[in-house]
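Incident log, structure service

09:12 report received: a user says their structure output differs between two submissions of the same chain.
09:20 pulled the input from the user's history:
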Amino acid sequence: MSKKKLDVWFVITLLIFGLYILFMFYPLFSLFKSAVVDPESGKLTLAFFEKFFSKKYYTNTVANSFVVTGWVTAMAVLVAVPLAYIMTTIKIRGAEVIRILILISSMSAPFIGAYSWILLLGRNGSITNFVSSLFGVQMHSIYGLPGIVLVLTLQLVPLVFMYVCGALKTMDSSLIEAAESMNCTGIRKMVRVVLPLILPTVLAAAILVFMRAIADFGTPMLIGEGFKTIPVLVYSEFMGENGGSEGFAAAMSLMVVLLTTAAFLIQQAISKKLAYSMNATSPIQPKKAKGMWNVLAHAFVYLYLLVALLPQFCVIETSFRKTQGVVFKEGYSLDSYRSAFSKMGIAIKNTLTLGAVSLVCIVFISVLIAYVSVRRSNAISGGLDVATMFPYIVSGSILGISLITAFNTKPLLLTGTAFILIVAFTIKRMPYTVRSSAAILRSIGVSTEEAALSLGASSLKTFFKVTLPMMMSGVISGAIMSWITIITELSSSILLYTGRTKTMTIAIYTEVVRGNYGVAAALSTVLTAISVCSIFIMFKVTGSKEISM
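09:34 re-ran on a clean worker, output below:
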């Protein structure tokens, strides 16, 4: 292969690396600089860190975040692993539909789940009022730590479920049969045989749950009340009505990034030690369970599905109710939808437009990153591959603050523009498409590319005409996941939006805070419908009826 052909991809690698440096590492450097530099004197200072550690209020907030994250991670794993095991090894009635419904249950933003549970278990919630009138018992409301854990757990169980299902597909059924021949059955078989084999995957899924839970802003903001977490505190300090402290918010952001980076590196080190490859010559096939095991398996799956989908049903039902603010009237109508489309039509348009532009950027850059990291492996492409993982560690709110800090002055004055939202969406949501594109590319042999090159096709032409079409199933799968997370994103957009760039998630959050539950429900239903349609489009294009990772 000629030097010229190699140079084309070398230049592409450098250009993409330059984009990451400009739009991710430079903003983070600007943010962290604010944490250690006095804004008035310009000298190095630790005053912001001293302020943080001098008051229990701030340290307790960090503790709160780790309590929430610990509970959510543990609960998500404890529910998702048995769920995936049952769905993989036992014949469950309607399994194909159940898998799709499990995925759909996670399609809305976490704060919409919080809003749903306010309607169900809030102080004036339907379940709260029903139990109170029937039994005369005042239930514990959804607000505070229990509510945050419930909402985030239900939101993140499908993530672990998809990862574990993917791992179980690589396990050979002979291992299960060998365990059963030695009278190792039931729960003992799962704990002693299956779990050790899928442990690296479980740890990988757990760290993603950890990252998502510690970064979530909307849920604790809506139902946390006195129970504050780090993203809420960072937002309050940065956007404070009395003039927030950018340096203090930066100092807290720096500590969060260091903690999450440490957690990520520990998980990577443990997974690397435990990692081994499995090749399923005879994949596990679901079998019909007998007696009580069959009843318990079905009960567990159906009960989880009911609880997971209950918020979705509640929001849809509320969207058709006659409402006036937080007051629910008798009967049903389309008034909430009329209000939503008349008042919030710009938010729907912005969501689709900004999301579509971001998705085009994500797909174009992701396929190039996947190609150079898999086919043109070297020190620079390896560094680029690591850089694509960094957005997992940086929460949306921290990314939003860093972009404001970096691009709030000329010559790169981007704050308040649609472009800065596109940058945030692209950087934060690109890993999904990069990973799925790289995974499919590793399974494609190089012989077809070599044949095209031998016939005189250029390196770039070979990529776009030969390689890319073969990658499309993986690209589309990752792109759909990127798309769904873009249109349901709140953490960074709530910091970056203006009146002209308001998205649906911002509109929903604003309407919930204002108490316009009907309009918020209508917008949430539209957003969920868009997400569900996206999933079915992916199923149609890829020919698959499930997603596993």
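09:41 both user submissions now match this output. Likely a transient worker issue. Closing.
09:42 reviewer note: Residues 429 and 485 are 7 Å apart (CA to CA). Confidence is low (pLDDT under 50) at residues 1-6.
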